[in-house]
Amino acid sequence: MKFGIIFYAILGVLALFTGIYLLQYFFPLSIIFFIAAFINVVFIHKEYSLHKNDKIEYDENSIPDEMIIKYSRSGRIIAIATYSIFVVLGLFLLSGIKFKFNGTVVFAVCILIGFTGYFIFKIVSEIKKMAQIVISINGKGIQIKNNTRYLWNEIQLEKIIVKRLVSRESKHDYKPEINYLYFFHNNKKIEINIDDFDITDYHLAQVLKIFRARFTHSGLI
Question: Which residues partner with 71 through β-bridges?
């Protein structure tokens, strides 16, 4: 965690000073570096928040009747800021084109408009994700997005599992880990990648245990 914060802090400072330096020479490019500095600040906040929240223990009294899980807000902000860099770049390139009615210029303009429009669309999509409910867990069961809720009496072996990505071409020992919400519903395996959500794998595991216990004690089995 400390290494991550130091790494992002160094990148952020370098991007900030580069942006300040370029202000007097190339304003559009300086905006890109300012956005990059902002992205690193969000990364630092994300790393610190994950480390701080990992110390929190959930219990029966701290969990509401329904647990709503959404996409990570910091993840969406990072994505929006990253896509904004490409939008600024696209607009800058469009502004630099001398409009002449020939095939090459028209083709370049169409490409740049498509490029810029694509990343504007991605920004709008990320904004919509902020309000989207991905997982809802309550006393009845687990609901994924707008699908039919999986009932607790039809769910088995609910837990968090970790998969490690192994590449045959990799010569390093590091294996990226991906966390999944995993359970069986009527003997059908369900897996949902939870790494981009506003809850950690550790806390979601606690939530599953608490709601399973509530269902068991409710006498609805």
Answer: 197
pLDDT, tens digit (0-9, with 9 covering 90-100), for 62-100: 888 999 999 999 999 999 999 999 999 998 888 877 666
Enter the tokens of residue 129. Answer: 């994700």
Alpha helices in the chain (DSSP H): 2-22, 27-53, 73-95, 103-130, 201-218
Q: How far is CA 92 from the centre of its chain?
A: 28
Spatial contact of 75 and 220, defined as CB atoms under 8 Å apart: no
Of 46, 52, 64, 26, the C-alpha closest to 214 is: 64
Residue 156 bridge partners (DSSP): 184
d(CA 134, CA 1): 27
Q: Token digits for 3?
A: 């290494």
User: Which pLDDT score, from 0 to 100, does residue 136 have?
Assistant: 95
3-state class (DSSP) for residue 183: strand
Handedness of CA 149, 152, 153, 158 (dihedral sign): positive
Nearest to 34 by CA among 26, 119, 74: 26
170/88 Cα distance (integer angstroms): 35
Give, for 91, the enclosing helix (H) or strand (E): helix 73-95
Hey, CA dihedral for 47, 52, 54, 60, is it positive or negative? negative
